[in-house]
Amino acid sequence: MSQPSPEPVSPAVRAQILATEHWGLLAVRSQTWSEVIGRITSQLMFTSATLLFLALAGQALSYSPTFRLLAIALGLTLLVAGTLTSFRVHNASQEDYMFIKGMNRLRAAYVDIDPTLAPYFITGLTDDDDGIGQTYTMGSTRRSASQVLSSSAMFIIVVNTLVAAGLAAFVLWPAGGWAAAVGAVVVGAAHFAAWIWLGWRAWQVNIDPAHVRFPALPPGSDPVS
């Protein structure tokens, strides 16, 4: 016995279902970044407290073996905590990209219900890289260098790079000032390059065309065909 075909859903019900999913994505995105900002704030407070403690300890201990070991131990603790924070920001950035992709798909569904809405959206209507870039920038399809450099991910990478360089300088200080300076520069550059490479790899996964369901139509194409 054949099953009866389901009754068609009205546009109003479809819009309500899409809006429910849209608000759900917005809520999870807000919670994610609230947690990430809290992690970054805690890391910066830990870093500033460590620097203040070392400044006070340096006045009492001068540059003695005890002070050096204390600085190395605190530097390692800072670097481990900062690395964990960087991983959280890295994962949150990937999650955020998928949140934006999902909301762009929902806006595409809104326009499918009522095509006359399309001119009123500032954010993107496609889930390809250009559409997601339009949502991030509120109009443009490409993010500028200043937006990338001022991002939370870049900020915590720079902080951790400075910590890694300072830690290397303390470890190599007995070998001489020049050795400590060169070692700090090399370790800092390697740390920064490794995290930039990790971010680039994640970005390549995000923009994989295999994950695009609603790309922008080529110029001159017929959206109906």
Strand content: under 5%
Number of strands: 0
Order of H and E elements: HHHHHH
Uncertain residue segments: 220-225
Q: End-to-end distance, in Å?
A: 36 Å
Number of helices: 6
Largest pleated sheet: none
Helix content: over 70%
Overall mean confidence score, pLDDT: 88
Question: Can you walk through the features of this model?
Answer:
The chain has 6 helices and no strands. It has 225 residues and is an all-alpha fold. The chain has helices spanning 11-61, 65-113, 129-137, 145-149, 152-172, 177-206. It has one domain (11-211). The protein is elongated and about 80 Å long.
Describe the structure concisely:
The chain crosses the membrane at residues 44-63, 69-89, 148-172, 178-198. It is built from six helices and no strands. With 225 residues, it is mostly helical.
Provide tags for this entry.
transmembrane helix; ABC transporter ATP-binding protein; single chain; 225 residues; mainly alpha; transmembrane; disordered C terminus
What secondary-structure arrangement, pairings included, does this model have?
Blueprint: H1 11-61, H2 65-113, H3 129-137, H4 145-149, H5 152-172, H6 177-206
